[in-house]
């Protein structure tokens, strides 16, 4: 069955347009700025089998939130940022401003767009507290109950699309931050250890960074530090 140009025009005219204004417009402007940066992406596979076992032994937070892999990633990221301050930085007016505190932005998907509330002083908070704050921020964001300041002041962003089942993705920078970490789904995969094939729970972390602020080698060291913390979960209880 063929469709004439006139018929196609009528069909297209019935589809409502989505103007780039309001929240959608703000996202478009910010993503354009992030895309203009000379960005580099690198990824690493992480075995979270030990992390899953460690989580099963952790107490539920006072607010009732159960510790999750996301909370572990936030904790590992905060610890790694404390040891790699060039990644915990903002690039403003051609000046790299390394931040003394770690404030993690957590991407939350809404029907109308993406919001990024901030976990303040994430480096000082244990996994259970991060799990509780993650749940509260996500709930508050989706309900539209958070004040504007709740979305301000992040020094680094973590975005998790693991619940969608994807294997990997490369997120766009959230300027003026110089780095963002993408978290993919956790799946059982065949891996080789000491010459033997076994099954492990694996995820892929993707780091995107602004090459003006940090070079590939130190960025790789940071990403490796996140991986090391997650694969040795007892270390998540330590201090930065």
UniProtKB/TrEMBL annotation:
Protein name as annotated: 2-oxoacid dehydrogenase acyltransferase catalytic domain-containing protein
Give the organism the record lists: Comamonas faecalis
Q: Could you tell me which PANTHER family the record lists for this protein?
A: DIHYDROLIPOAMIDE ACETYLTRANSFERASE COMPONENT OF PYRUVATE DEHYDROGENASE COMPLEX, LIPOAMIDE ACYLTRANSFERASE COMPONENT OF BRANCHED-CHAIN ALPHA-KETO ACID DEHYDROGENASE COMPLEX, MITOCHONDRIAL
Decide whether keyword Transferase is in the record. Answer: yes
**One protein family per Pfam:** 2-oxoacid_dh
Residues crossing the lipid bilayer are none
The positions making up the signal sequence are: none
- Please list the cofactors this protein needs: (R)-lipoate
- Keyword terms of this UniProt record: Acyltransferase, Transferase
Pinpoint the 2-oxoacid dehydrogenase acyltransferase catalytic domain residues: 18-236
């Amino acid at each position: 069955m063929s469709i004439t140009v006139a018929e196609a025009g009528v069909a297209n005219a019935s589809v409502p347009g989505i103007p780039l204004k309001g929240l959608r417009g703000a996202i478009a402007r910010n993503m354009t700025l992030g895309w203009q940066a000379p960005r580099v992406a690198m990824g690493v596979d992480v075995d979270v089998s030990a992390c899953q076992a460690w989580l099963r032994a952790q107490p539920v937070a006072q607010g009732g939130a159960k510790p999750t892999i996301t909370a572990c990633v936030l904790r590992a990221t905060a610890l790694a940022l404390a040891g790699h301050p060039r990644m915990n930085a903002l690039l403003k007016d051609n000046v790299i401003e390394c931040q003394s505190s770690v404030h993690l932005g957590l991407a939350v998907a809404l029907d109308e767009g993406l919001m990024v509330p901030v976990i303040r002083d994430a480096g000082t908070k244990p996994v259970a507290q991060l799990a509780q704050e993650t749940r509260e921020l996500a709930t508050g964001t989706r309900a539209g109950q958070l004040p504007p300041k709740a979305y301000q002041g992040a020094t680094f962003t973590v975005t998790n699309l693991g619940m969608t089942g994807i294997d990997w993705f490369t997120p766009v920078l959230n300027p003026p931050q110089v780095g963002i970490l993408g978290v993919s789904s956790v799946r059982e995969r065949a891996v080789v250890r000491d010459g033997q094939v076994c099954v492990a729970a694996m995820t892929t972390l993707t780091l995107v960074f602004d090459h003006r602020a940090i070079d590939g080698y130190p960025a790789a060291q940071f990403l490796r530090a996140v991986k090391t913390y997650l694969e040795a979960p007892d270390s998540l209880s330590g201090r930065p």
